[in-house]
Amino acid sequence: MGFKQRTQFEIVPVLNSDGHHLIYPASSYIFIPEENVSTMMRILLFLATNLAVVLIASITLSLFGFNGFMAANGVDLNLNQLLVFCAVFGFAGSLFSLFISKWMAKMSTGTQIITQPRTRHEQWLLQTVEQLSRDAGIKMPEVGIFPAYEANAFATGWNKNDALVAVSQGLLERFSPDEVKAVLAHEIGHVANGDMVTLALVQGVVNTFVMFFARIIGNFVDKVIFKTENGQGIAYYITTIFAELVLGFLASAIVMWFSRKREFRADDAGARLAGTDAMIGALQRLRSEQGVPVNMPDSLTAFGINAGLKKGLAGLFMSHPPLEQRIEALRRRG
């Protein structure tokens, strides 16, 4: 599932002169374009798929006479052009957020990037992420620590080879080294699986259809109910904004459902990298801290290890499955 196997030709890294950083001889660098190609192929294939979805939606609307129904009621929108317009802006916003995600994460959480380790804990953190990254077949991400009492961590970045993995101060202070390693393995799993790119593209699809149907509703209300001739009166703008809020809220359940599925995959990746028992132990430790408030920014919760607990219908809008379900899934994995 996206992890490269080590070969007998792997070159062992050595410590450099400062005794801290792992370095590789120049001869050990081998150009393997598959890493960048796989990310770009994922984007291109997903975009192609969603362009097909837009095309199918356009054809379906025409076949079912939706254009004629709208025209008969005085609404003469060009639905094909509207759909393309919404797709362009829907994906633009989502992809822009993805490309600035590392910068936003650092700013919103106060994450301090470790460049030169000042303590043995920071040195251990860097070396552990280095090892996990090699095992997962990705380049070493930036590593940081953010000030928070809660035990948490997150991964972000537009590319699996240009990512950021950060842990909270509370996680480092209260979790054992094996538990921290398992949490880091989970986050590396998110990066290796390309979850940031995939979720951004899913959000782009959701944005497209929220914008599309909100504008249809706005135009319909303005022309049919308020009898505005061109369908662009004040009622159009008010209705469109309100419809975007309502539809966006409902559609977020789709994104969160997808996010929960990716969490199981990241747990599985963490189990492969750090061991199943260690991954279960880390989740059990997180379960014991469920009373601690989670203050992670909303934009990062989908890629954190701990997103808090919600019950009832609110569970539909959780970015993470309940910890009990995640632990049980790992136990079934064996």
TrEMBL record:
<keyword id="KW-0346">Stress response</keyword>
<keyword id="KW-0862">Zinc</keyword>
<feature type="transmembrane region" description="Helical">
    <location>
        <begin position="234"/>
        <end position="258"/>
    </location>
</feature>
<keyword id="KW-0812">Transmembrane</keyword>
<dbReference type="InterPro" id="IPR050083">
    <property type="entry name" value="HtpX_protease"/>
</dbReference>
<keyword id="KW-1133">Transmembrane helix</keyword>
<dbReference type="InterPro" id="IPR022919">
    <property type="entry name" value="Pept_M48_protease_HtpX"/>
</dbReference>
<feature type="binding site">
    <location>
        <position position="263"/>
    </location>
    <ligand>
        <name>Zn(2+)</name>
    </ligand>
</feature>
<keyword id="KW-0482">Metalloprotease</keyword>
<feature type="transmembrane region" description="Helical">
    <location>
        <begin position="82"/>
        <end position="100"/>
    </location>
</feature>
<feature type="active site">
    <location>
        <position position="187"/>
    </location>
</feature>
<dbReference type="GO" id="GO:0008270">
    <property type="term" value="F:zinc ion binding"/>
</dbReference>
<dbReference type="Pfam" id="PF01435">
    <property type="entry name" value="Peptidase_M48"/>
</dbReference>
<dbReference type="GO" id="GO:0006508">
    <property type="term" value="P:proteolysis"/>
</dbReference>
<comment type="similarity">
    <text>Belongs to the peptidase M48B family.</text>
</comment>
<feature type="binding site">
    <location>
        <position position="186"/>
    </location>
    <ligand>
        <name>Zn(2+)</name>
    </ligand>
</feature>
<keyword id="KW-0479">Metal-binding</keyword>
<protein>
    <recommendedName>
        <fullName>Protease HtpX</fullName>
        <ecNumber>3.4.24.-</ecNumber>
    </recommendedName>
</protein>
<dbReference type="GO" id="GO:0005886">
    <property type="term" value="C:plasma membrane"/>
</dbReference>
<dbReference type="InterPro" id="IPR001915">
    <property type="entry name" value="Peptidase_M48"/>
</dbReference>
<feature type="domain" description="Peptidase M48">
    <location>
        <begin position="121"/>
        <end position="333"/>
    </location>
</feature>
<dbReference type="GO" id="GO:0004222">
    <property type="term" value="F:metalloendopeptidase activity"/>
</dbReference>
<keyword id="KW-1003">Cell membrane</keyword>
<keyword id="KW-0378">Hydrolase</keyword>
<feature type="transmembrane region" description="Helical">
    <location>
        <begin position="43"/>
        <end position="70"/>
    </location>
</feature>
<keyword id="KW-0472">Membrane</keyword>
<feature type="binding site">
    <location>
        <position position="190"/>
    </location>
    <ligand>
        <name>Zn(2+)</name>
    </ligand>
</feature>
<feature type="transmembrane region" description="Helical">
    <location>
        <begin position="196"/>
        <end position="214"/>
    </location>
</feature>
<keyword id="KW-0645">Protease</keyword>
